[in-house]
Amino acid sequence: MVTRAVIAAFISCAAFGQSPEFEVASVRPSRPDAGIINNQLPSLNVEPGRSLNFTNITLRDLIMVAYRVGAPQVFGPDWITNRFDVVAKVPADGRKEQIPQMLQGLLADRFKLMFHRDQKVIRIFALEAANGGPKLKESPDGDASNEAGAPGCNRSFAERPGATLAAVCNRMTSGDMAQQIQALAPGYFRDGPVIDMTGLKGVYDFKLEWITRAEANQGSDGPTIFDAVQQQLGLKLQSRKQSLEILGIDHVEKVPTEN
């Protein structure tokens, strides 16, 4: 059944009990000269007591990360592609599963985000295990504050023959992985989001190397993102249609309130 109730996340907490919040948060417009290549791709896989650090991230991507949806599931004004730098500290006594709700509260508080939910049949790309099984390395336990162990993805130089783009990803759940694949290669997923259907329960490190959609269309011999996911991760992306929840933005402020 279609849901049309308007969501207003900044309704008084007193009515529903106190919602989890970041200990402190800073939201600032990104510098105009900040290149996309310099941004750190978003992940909510952060330990309590540490900070989320989103650099040069679009408002659309913040909404996508907070509500675990893909770009085709978010309907709003064109300017939600404006970019911001966000630093938000998770309370030491918080829980990782509360972080999406904390980010939702931040969007409601700073951007006054309001939206309604609906259902729509759209194309998706299902992330599944390929024949032969996953080729993934489980992340080592340890201090997530060190650079190698910090959750998230960072762009790097491609070393694989024919590849032009690369990313090194650490401490990724399968849900994070689906989200990161979409964020890393958005040109391949204009028609629908990447949805995790792997059933994997671990946390993983991996490197992915591929070519852009434009290079693939021009006949480059390098690995497409579909080739890379299958050959390098032991997973596959299957196109199909499925009814998914969509978010229709009813109100959002172009400039966030002050920190």
Q: Explain this structure to me?
A:
This protein has 259 residues and is an alpha+beta fold. The protein has two domains: 6-119 and 245-251, no CATH class; 122-242, no CATH class. 18% of the residues lie in helices and 32% in strands. The chain contains five helices and twelve strands. The chain has helices spanning 59-67, 99-111, 174-184, 213-217, 225-233; strands at 6-8, 24-29, 51-58, 74-75, 83-89, 114-129, 137-138, 152-156, 165-172, 194-196, 204-210, 235-251. The strands form three sheets. Strands 1, 4, 6, 10 and 12 form a five-stranded mixed beta sheet that branches. A hairpin with an 8-residue loop joins strand 8 (152-156) and strand 9 (165-172). It is globular and about 50 Å long. The protein starts with 5 loop residues before the first strand and ends in an 8-residue tail after the last strand.
